[in-house]
UniProtKB/TrEMBL annotation:
Source organism (scientific name): Lingula anatina
Name of the protein this chain belongs to: Uncharacterized protein C20orf85 homolog
Pfam families membership: LLC1
InterPro entries for the chain: C20orf85-like (IPR020339)
Domain of life: Eukaryota
Length: 136
């Protein structure tokens, strides 16, 4: 019997009806006060946009634009006239290590048509003839 009384006491002790009622009253009070203050703070949201900006915005007039006729493109030049790809030299390399750069090593298949891009002149210090002792 003592165990039944303790279990009922725990259930009742965990529920404070007066405190829950005060919390509910506070929520209701905040809802009522917020509903009274809302039109003053946010009432403009319920109005139409046109009513809010009467006379402030001028309507833009559209002007007609003359659209030119579509441009005529020149006929397309075949790619064979622009790029000339020669057949690969024979024999094909036997190993994969030899395939790297095997085609560009021959002058007729060189990728650099206009000569070397980098001129090996050394560093800036060598070009200016500065002594190495003055460089940190």
């Amino acid at each position: 019997m003592a165990a039944a009384a303790q279990s009922q006491g725990k259930q009742v002790a965990g529920c404070n009806y007066v405190a829950l009622d005060e919390i509910w009253k506070d929520h209701i009070h905040l809802e009522v006060s917020a509903s009274k203050q809302w039109p003053e703070s946010w009432g403009f949201l319920s109005q139409r946009y046109e009513d809010l900006v009467q006379g402030e915005v001028t309507k833009k007039t559209r002007t007609e634009r003359h659209v030119p006729t579509p441009l005529r493109l020149p006929p397309i030049t075949p790619i064979e006239k622009i790029i000339n790809v020669k057949p690969s030299p024979k024999p094909f390399p036997m190993t994969t290590a030899r395939t790297i750069g095997w085609r560009s090593s021959r002058p007729e298949y060189a990728l650099e048509r206009y000569g070397r891009y980098a001129n090996p002149k050394g560093g800036l210090i060598k070009q200016l003839n500065w002594p190495l002792d003055g460089i940190d």
